[in-house]
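Explain this record to help learners:
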Amino acid sequence: MKKVLAIILALILCFSLAACSSGDSGDTDTPDNTGDNTPDSTNEPSDEGGDSDDTVVCYSFGPMTGGAAWGQFERGFMTACEELGWEGHYLAPTADNNMSQLFNLHETAITNGADVMIPLVTDTDAMSDILDTAVEKGITMVGCCMGDPHFPGYIGTDPTNLGYTVAEALVQCMGDQEIHVVTMQTLLSTQSQVDQVDAFEEKLMELRPDATIVRREECNSSAQTAQDKLSAVCIANPETNALVSFDSYAGLGAATYVEAEGRQDDFCVIGIDDAAEILLAIKAGNMDATVAQMWYKMGYESVYLANDVREGKEIPEYTDSGTSIIMPEDVDAWAEEMGTDLSA
């Protein structure tokens, strides 16, 4: 009997020790570890991931980096992205006006996870598949310079209005003189500029039916090419006494030609855009006037139009960024208004 009682007491003691051991383990480990891990390993990483996911990634595109026009466009685009807290990227070919590279850059933006794109459509057929992919991926798109069925609207300079404005500027500067004018654009294959030149010729014939279009030329955004081509045209056609530009560098090249040949009194140059070097060429008397296309506004407002689309708002199918003729007497006031430094 004593042995049986001893065994029973031993078993009771073992169960009591086991229970105490189990209770101590739960009290010391579980509550403390749970409390320590929750804010460090769960909440903070989750918050950081949410911030990253909420950032809108926006891409815009141009045919070149910098320059009188596209440099202003990029600046306006980046300013608007910063205001909205978006991650902005401006992409351009390494070789100016390389359309194949430009198409590839649109594909790169899609691959990199763009939320918003401001496409630069230079060939609707060539870019159709690229834009199809963007639509399939739910990328918000607003066009720049040209419209396309893939996006709800675009912003740019109305080609007809621009052409008309350039013709009016030329007629104003030439007065009663005969007009034998060369037109020069970036590439003769750029459809938007073809439309601009067509409108220019139409309006010029209306205002001055006696005017002559000597040649249509291209300069591939090179001032030196523009100067060389204009010089060759003037040798072959000595009556040539004017050039109107549909590319910033065409006007600058023509201004250099005028300065080199001393033709300030008998040759008229109508530039385009309002970069400092263009305004300075007017002040120097080597360019007669320029037509500003508002490239900063184009880049800036394209972002806000895209934001409206993201918020479910309707936008106009076309937003005209506007044009303005800048004559010599307007240069200083224009530069001051736009914050352009003419001290160089």
